[in-house]
Design a protein that fits this description.
88 residues, mainly alpha, 2 domains, 0% strand
Length: 88
């Protein structure tokens, strides 16, 4: 039986790409939330900003992913918020 001393471990490119995408998606999410918060403060109307952002996101997501996936996404967002409120 040969020794495994000469084994070369290649980098996991799939995991690296997945991690890079996760970082980019988190960055985009955080930046968009920051912009929306600024609009809410500037116009002093959080309700209008929330409705505009929700309308845009729900309509675009439905076009990209379809109705069922979009509804599932929004349900998960709501569940996350509900769980966050429970842990306060």
């Amino acid at each position: 039986m040969k020794s495994k001393v000469n084994v070369i471990n290649f980098p996991d490119r799939i995991k690296q790409r997945r991690d890079e995408k996760a970082k980019i998606y988190s960055s985009i999410r955080d930046e968009i939330e920051s912009v929306l918060n600024k609009y809410s403060r500037y116009y002093n109307d959080e309700w209008a900003v929330v409705l505009a952002a929700g309308r845009y996101s729900s309509m675009k997501l439905q076009q990209i992913e379809g109705t069922d996936s979009s509804i599932d996404f929004f349900k998960k967002c709501i569940e996350t918020q509900e769980n966050k409120n429970l842990n306060l």
